[in-house]
Amino acid sequence: MTFKGLSLEDLALFLSDHLAKQGIDTVLSGGACVSIYTQNKYLSYDLDFVLLNYVSRKKIASALQSVGFREDGRHFRHADTPFIIEFLAPPPSVGEEPIGRIEEIRKGRMVLKLLSPTDCVKDRLAAYYHWNDRQSLEQAILVCLARSVDLREMERWSVKEGMKEKFGSFQDLLRRRASPRGPSAEAADQRKSEKT
Amino acid sequence: MLEPLLESEKKEKVLLYIHVHGEAYPMEIARAFEYYVNTVQNQLQKLENGGVLYSRLKGKVRLFGMNPRYAFKKELETLLAKALQFIPEAEKERYYTPRLRPRRTGKP
């Protein structure tokens, strides 16, 4: 079996489907979802699968070894692909809350379960909120610009996480990026209207 | 206090230590409780794999702390805070009262 030249989405689809057939149900999360939703405007090399139920490491290793992956510390790698596979403990959550509706991508008979765009943004915002990670903030913005997301739900969740202020900064940045003429044109408009 | 739940006295102590100190490295915890460092590392690894703890490198030292993205963080901290109330004062003083003031280089 070869994985040469396989895109992140196709590899995720194959693995998710292969694992499900072995009784290992997963949801793709993290930067890989950002890559898929933004059509690689941000390219992740990490495929983070969150387990839906507790499964032994041995069972996961055996399922992946059967398609040529080898265990490398906490990760799994394959010589044909630069992508690194990791499994996160259940339950799938964003901050303190369980994830909402799970998105599905289907190709032929294969199914990939992944975070919805709204949960994907929450997941990135959680990294920005708790680790001050600006890269995650940028990724959250990219997903918001590429896909339809529920900003009201994000605000409710952010307040619950105790991050109302940081949500405000995120919203300001998103507004500036969403403006088609850019922030300088907006500022010029404002100066013009102040004069008249 | 929480051994019946956690099935390990060592795991409870590691969690309580991190809960009180915010972040800690394996050798620090091992020294505090006079455990082998491998034993502590093993417990930390299990907790990190389960998403309960995070770890980050600071220089050459790997620090562990409560993962703010762990779904049950708040509830776990409530449980640990309650467990701490039942620990005898002398033990609390010895292991779970962090020294916050600086200590000059060279002082024993």
Q: CATH superfamily membership of chain B, which one?
A: Winged helix-like DNA-binding domain superfamily/Winged helix DNA-binding domain
CATH class of the largest domain in chain A: Alpha Beta
For the record, the CATH architecture of the largest domain in chain A stands as 2-Layer Sandwich
Q: Which topology of the largest domain in chain A does CATH recognise? A: Beta Polymerase, domain 2
The count of domains of chain B is 1
Note the gap between the termini of chain A: 69 Å
- Note the quaternary state here: heterodimer
Radius of gyration of chain B: 14 Å
Features:
heterodimer, A: 196 residues, alpha+beta, Beta Polymerase, domain 2, 2 domains, 5-stranded mixed sheet, two-stranded antiparallel ribbon, globular, B: 108 residues, Arc Repressor Mutant, subunit A, 3-stranded antiparallel sheet, 3 strands
Topology:
The complex is a heterodimer of chains A (196) and B (108).
Chain A: H1 8-21, E1 26-29, H2 31-37, E2 46-51, H3 57-65, E3 70-72, E4 75-78, E5 81-88, E6 93-94, E7 97-98, E8 102-107, E9 110-115, H4 117-131, H5 134-146, H6 151-160, H7 164-178, H8 182-195
Parallel strand pairs in A: 2-5
Antiparallel strand pairs in A: 1-2, 3-4, 4-5, 6-7, 8-9
Helix pairs in contact in A: 2-4, 4-5, 4-6, 5-7
Chain B: H1 3-6, H2 9-21, E1 23-24, H3 26-33, H4 37-49, E2 53-58, E3 61-66, H5 73-85, H6 89-95
Antiparallel strand pairs in B: 1-3, 2-3
Helix pairs in contact in B: 3-4
